[in-house]
Amino acid sequence: MDGVLLESRGYHRALQKTIRLMALALGFAHATISPDEIAAFEAGGISSEWDEAAIVTARLLEEAWKDNPHMLLPDSLSPSLTLSPGKRPWPNLASLAYALSTPEMLALHPLERAARFFFGKGHRTAQQEQILHDLILGARLAELSLTHRTFQELVLGSSEYYRTYNLPAEHNTESYLLKYDRSNLSDMQSAHLCGWISQPGHAATVITSRPSRPPAGVFSTPEAELGAQLVGLKGIPILGWGGMRWLGLQTHIDPQSFLKPSPVHALAGMRMALGERQEVALTEAADLVENGLAVSAWKELEGAEVSVFEDTPGGIKSLQAARGILKKARITIVVKSFGIAQHQAKTAALSSLGAQLFPTLVEALEATYQ
Question: Cα dihedral sign for 153, 184, 227, 365?
Answer without folding.
Answer: negative
